Amino acid sequence: MSTARRHVPSNIPPSLMRCELPGWRYRIEDEDDVRCVYCGHAMDDHYDLNQWSVSFEDYASIHEQAIRDPEFPGPPLGHPHVVLRGDIIERKTCLHICPFCGWWIAEDRAVLPAMQWQHWVVTLASMSILQDLALNDIDLPLQEVRRYLIRKFEARASIHPRLFELTVASVLSDFGYKATATAYSNDGGVDVVLDDDSGGRIGVQVKRQRRSVEVEQIRAFLGALIMGNFTAGIFVSSSRFRRGAIRAAQKCSESIMPIELIDANRFLDMLGSVQLKHKPVPEDCGITRTEPLKFHCVNYSHLNTL
Ligand SMILES: [Zn+2]
């Protein structure tokens, strides 16, 4: 099964480099103001020293690289200001996760004392990249699909029609309906049935199509609603509705039964408005102590303690 979230195996990809990396703070106790590079939303912070392992040697190797750099402005290798004492006096680990789309950054920061007076601060970070989901796989977990669509809504054009139906049913159920996707073939023009609290039965048609929905499709949908004894209808499209289709739905709502139209943009709004009910947790990121993250140094500095 494919997954939308993977940590970067070697280097931060160029697509993410054009985004601003989180504004790392100077003091270890400061919280980072990290925003999702896809949604711009503030991330949820999970602080837990036991989420993954980073050894003293991992930090120390970054420190040594910096000292060996000919451009390094500080004292030379072997000077007691740069020779590390061998312990970590403060460490902070934080997993920042976007509550909407699941994008994450893992941050690990350590303060390393030198033999004499100086403290060196190494911040390591690892971030997820968006991998393409095979949206023709109708067995994909729907939360993965929903998060993926938030990050890459244009992918709706290639989603399997059945998977789109299931995704729509899942989103509508978050609005309080009991939503049931009907059998994929021979559904009589109704893809999802919604039962509301007042005994109403709403038929939903879900169309994954690139062209705009035509008036004929609304008429055919009305026929399916009448034949199926529904009290109302909702037409969800991955595209837009032609003016004639909108007029037909309005006319139908005034005289026969309510038909609501949900186009792609409105569906994305609806998806975003209920997504916080399914905030990703650290376990969703696939980070474990036994599968070490590959970290990238994103900051290196020293605290002058003189
Ligand atoms: Zn996001």
What is this entry, summarized?
The chain has 306 residues and is of the alpha+beta class.
Shape: elongated
What count of structural domains? 2
Structural class: alpha+beta
Question: What share of the residues does DSSP label as strand, in percent?
Answer: 15-25%
Order of helices and strands: EHEHEEEHHEEEHEHEHE
Helix content bin: 25-40%
**Sequence stretches where pLDDT stays below 50 over 5 or more residues:** 1-10
Describe the structure.
This protein has 306 residues and is α+β, with helices and mostly antiparallel strands. It has two domains: 3-132 and 280-302, no CATH class; 157-276, 3-Layer(aba) Sandwich (Trna Endonuclease, Chain: A, domain 1). The chain has seven helices and eleven strands. The strands form two sheets. Strands 1, 2, 3, 4, 5 and 11 form a six-stranded antiparallel sheet that branches. The protein has a five-stranded mixed sheet with strand order 6-7-8-9-10, with helices on both faces. The longest helix is centred in the first third of the chain and has 13 residues, at 56-68. The termini are far apart. Bound molecules: zinc ion.
Layout of helices and strands:
Elements: E1 5-7, H1 14-17, E2 44-47, H2 56-68, E3 90-97, E4 104-113, E5 118-130, H3 142-151, H4 161-173, E6 178-181, E7 192-195, E8 201-207, H5 215-227, E9 232-237, H6 243-255, E10 259-262, H7 264-274, E11 296-304
Parallel strand pairs: 8-9, 9-10
Antiparallel strand pairs: 1-5, 2-3, 3-4, 4-5, 5-11, 6-7, 7-8
Helix pairs in contact: 5-6
Q: Keywords for this structure?
A:
single chain; 306 residues; alpha+beta; Trna Endonuclease, Chain: A, domain 1; 2 domains; six-stranded antiparallel beta sheet; five-stranded mixed beta sheet; 11 strands; 25% helix; binds zinc ion
